[in-house]
Specification:
Helix content: 25-40%
Number of strands: 16
Distance between the termini: 46 Å
Radius of gyration: 21 Å
């Protein structure tokens, strides 16, 4: 396959290059050559072509909450009860239908790989399905059917609070009893297909007692697998951890051997200077989810301080209040402007890196996220002739474009979206049906 991009953003460049010939074979990029006229037979990609975008933090079933939880007063903790109500209505078949539609929506937005932070493991009474990993299988199948890659971050979730309060209600579906039983279940999960990798997650210091943390960290380390965790999303989490352990969550995780270059902390909103130093010096990545952090009134995390300390930054859509990687990318910069009252903390190229290369690396796909020879052939083309993008210079797409401006998406060299239409999924219809099934 030969593609000719009007503009393409190549690795290390401050702005897109013009007239880029891209050759694709066996799902990988071959030669990539800028500044050449379109040869006969090459498929033209008008607009700006970007590397495939990575959604490093997703809870697929939260998509059913969109438009239902945003009004009125409340906070993260009241929103959480509404989330549990949806979780209580899901089974493997319903989750497959919902996740397939959600992942297809991601594909339409330019996302070629998702990190699914998966903790909805068991049946409604907390007992295991006959296939203990049936819900995981549903998510892996959903990604395949939607045409994107997935890193299934199987999440250890054992208690309802830092004090070890037992899981009750819908939370019973999340728990395996202890970390050893969690590890045994995950070891039994061997999904097929080149589109999937399995990693681990610690839900939070609220949900995994300190004595259990090293088990999860060791499981990930022995398999060289990604390890993700929610960190300091709420001040109440910090206060409870300090009261129980005499340390901040980041300090507790550092002492348990959880931090490191294969680890990604999600949110990291309420950090002290010591926390930032621990994350940075250990090269622990940080995934920001700006649209969710706004929606849940979480706050604005110290992104520039973390980047300066040495933490790679990635992006996720988390609760899917919005699925728009362009909004997440510019949110990283624009939210920082609100916090600091300073413009231009992150360049457009840095925002693109967070949305593409860094996200793929956080999910264990180091061979994706760049338009370069040998990399996975993931491409996202954004139109420059839409209402939002007309007259915008190519470098400005991250600040002007939205998910609706994506015209074409390739994943591992396969066309998944063409002319703004998904190849196999009627996304709006499937979303409507799947969400109705769990919200009636």
């Amino acid at each position: 396959m030969r593609l000719h991009a009007e503009y393409a953003w190549l690795p290390g460049a401050a702005e897109p290059s013009r007239d880029v010939l891209i050759e694709v074979a066996d799902g990988r990029f071959g030669a990539v050559t800028a500044g050449v006229p379109a040869p006969a037979g090459a498929r033209r990609l008008p607009g700006v072509t970007l590397p495939g975008l990575a959604n490093a933090h997703s809870h697929a079933f939260h998509r059913a909450l969109r438009g239902r939880t945003h009004g009125g007063r409340g906070d993260f903790w009241s929103w959480r009860e509404q989330m549990y109500a949806v979780a209580d209505r899901l089974d493997p078949q319903r989750y497959l239908a919902l996740a397939r539609a959600v992942y297809a929506e991601m594909a339409l937005a330019g996302i070629t790989c998702v990190g699914e932070f998966h903790y909805l493991h068991h049946d409604r009474d907390g007992g295991r399905y006959a296939d203990a990993n049936a819900m995981s299988e549903a998510l892996v199948a959903a990604a395949a059917q939607a045409g994107i890659r997935i890193t299934l971050l199987d999440t250890c979730y054992l208690s309802a609070g830092v004090d070890g309060t037992p899981l009750t209600g819908a939370q019973r579906r999340f728990g395996d009893g202890d970390a050893d039983r969690w590890a045994q279940r995950v070891d039994a999960f061997a999904p097929a297909g080149g589109h999937v990798r399995v990693g681990a997650a610690v839900h939070s210091v609220r949900a995994v007692p300190a004595a259990q943390l090293p088990v999860v960290a060791a499981w990930a380390r022995e398999r060289d697998a990604p390890l993700h965790l929610h960190l300091s999303e709420q001040p109440a989490e910090n206060e409870a951890c300090q009261a129980a352990y005499g340390r901040s969550p980041a300090e507790l995780l550092a002492d348990a051997g959880v931090l490191g270059p294969r680890t990604t902390a999600v949110h990291a909103t309420h950090l002290g200077d010591t926390d930032v130093r621990l994350l940075g010096t250990s090269r622990t990545g940080v995934c920001f989810c700006p649209t969710t952090e706004r929606d849940l009134a979480d706050g604005i995390g110290p992104a520039p301080q973390l980047a300066a300390a040495g933490s790679p930054l990635s992006l996720g859509s988390d609760s899917h209040a919005v699925i728009d990687p362009f909004e997440e990318a510019r949110g990283l910069e624009l939210d920082e402007r609100l916090r600091s009252r300073v413009r231009g903390t992150f360049t457009a190229a840095e925002l693109l890196s967070a949305a593409s290369r860094a996200g793929h690396e956080a999910l264990g796909w180091s061979d994706a996220g760049g338009i370069a020879t040998g990399q996975r052939a993931d491409l996202v083309t954004v139109a420059l002739d839409r209402v939002r993008t007309a007259g915008v210079p190519p470098t400005g797409v991250l600040f002007a474009a939205g998910a609706a401006d994506v015209t074409d998406v390739l994943v591992d060299g396969r066309p998944v979206v063409t002319a703004g239409v998904h190849a196999t999924v009627d996304v709006a219809a499937e979303l409507g049906a799947a969400i109705s099934a769990v919200t009636r």
